[in-house]
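Record type: ASSEMBLY
Status: queued
Input:
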Amino acid sequence: MSQPLAKSDTTLPQPANTQEGTFVERRKRPRIAIEPRNPPPPPSLKDYEGIVDSADLDEIRWIAHQLRGKSIKLINATALGGTIADTLNRIIPLLKELEIQAQWDVITGGNDFYYVNKAFLGALQGGAYQLTPEVLDVYVAYIEQNRQRLDFGADIVVAHDFQPVALVQSRTQHQKWLWRCHIDLSNPHPDVWGFFRPYIERYDAAIFSSAAFAKNLRIPQYLFYPSLDPLSEMNKPLDDEFVTRVCEDFGIDRKRPIVTQISRFERGKDPAGVVQAYKLAKKYVDCQLVLAGSGVNEDPESKLVLDQVFEEAGDDPDVIVLNLPPWSSLEMNALQQASDVIVQKSLQEGFGLTVTEALWKSKPVIGSAVGGIPAQIVHKITGMLVHSIEGCAYQIRYLLTHPDFAHQLGRNGHEHVKENLLITRSLKSWLVLCSSLLGRS
Amino acid sequence: LAAQHTAIPQIPKAKAPFYFNSATHLVRVEREQAHSLGELLDAMRGCSEASIFQHTYQTLAEHHFIRQGFSNDFAHWTFSACNEIGLAEQLAAIDVRNFTTIANLRTELVNMLGEYLDRVPRARDRAAAEPFYFCASELFLIPTPFAAADLAEFADCLRKVSVHSIQHHFIDARLRLRLSSNDFSQWLEVDADRADLAAKINRIDFYTQTLNGVRAKIVDIVESAL
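Status: finished
Output:
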């Protein structure tokens, strides 16, 4: 079995061994950059023509015209990495192109602020937690610092996720404030939720990624699906030559079926469960399993999860585990494009944008019926929903042996994303909501 | 030379042009939830009309690329979360074209569900695999630059507008007009004196094809008359 890659390409993985004990090195030195590449320039709205109807783009321009000259401030907790920062990086240039003054600010704080927010994140997603006055003091103190530091002078302020929620104390009379929640709030820790709720109810509206995450609030709540950018490195079409090269680098045989899960190595993503499902399926169909993710080096829990994956996989050379640097979007994209079936067997999930990415690439997807995945997978139509390891194993076998059906799922999935989950749809929703709040519709 | 010249047939102008509009919507999450079919019935009786619209008309458009097996959210949930296949089939067979008001559509849904639960009482309180969350549509009208003064221009504009415009004029229009018709057929019959084309277009089945398929069929019908 392959070992995880080191963070850079300077360390080769340990060689794999066959059952007979013969040494087999299946992986060459991967050609992944040691440092992040310079990002390509952000696309303009016109670049989406051909992917989205030009009439649809014209509708976006018309709605934006109602907001021309207005200002929007977007605030979140991280400038780099993660879905929120990635999305803001793509959407802000589009807002500016549409003559809307979009500004992005990031709240700052010390390590104690980081750890408090990490604990809050777990608690708001249902984890056990002991809320203490000291913890609240840390949060409140850093929010006060950020209130002093940041300028909130905009027509609309959008706070992303819970970290900047309490900044709403700075709102003025003629502003509109929106709270965009990206996490699963269906079962939050009552004390932590009780702390944030009064702040949230001072916003004009809240936006959730799934109706299941919404709460009983005194403000309007909207459903906005997260979206993907079809022109990003993670989702753009790739030359088949490049896809083959990436597979060769990682020791993946493109002539044999490939089953893939792309996710961080976290318990909630259940990579060990995916290995179990693969092993059950492999009794009847030949396939390789690729588990690719990033972030192991930074997170101690990920290392434990990875150990569990290795233990589960034993010495099977067809289980290929890849811990890639965060700037490996092109390689992740290639792995998805090379796959015959893509799995997202999460035990807990926010929206599950990796499912969206797989659907966009017209791949048959097997996803757990958790979080936002059922909003993307209409069972047997845009993908297959499962509730167990055994169910996942059965669907891997079925899809690998029924390629016509798998192909149809992929086609439907692609259309679903095209209609409902692209960045242009998200941009339109934001513009309509802002326009409506400012009385421009 | 004059004798050899073939007159180009004139396409008659309509009495009034057809102005194409489009629409977009926001989905608002409502308070009602259902954890069983009994709760679905209660919520269905009291929810807003915008909710009934969202879970029937709007969801049909959101899933228009599925040409078979998807009709409305109530039917889908009854099948996937409650495993009541017979009821799901009945609900899926509800055709929004038979209703010109949301109130009538709601009455049909409530009657169908109520009668089923009277017949199969065990299904009333059995817990669903996942809750049904009621949402509601907030619709926003978007004007477009497209207008047609005759059939040729009409076909040309149809090719250029977004699928949301097709949805707005062909599906949602029934509620606006309160007629078993659509904006395209109304214009063809009233302003372009082509009742024959209007009737053909009104028979296009949007349950069995995508909105782009609907668009192509309308264009075919109009162009065949040019």
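Annotation: The beta strands of chain B are 13-34, 132-150.
Annotation: DSSP finds eleven helices and two strands in chain B.
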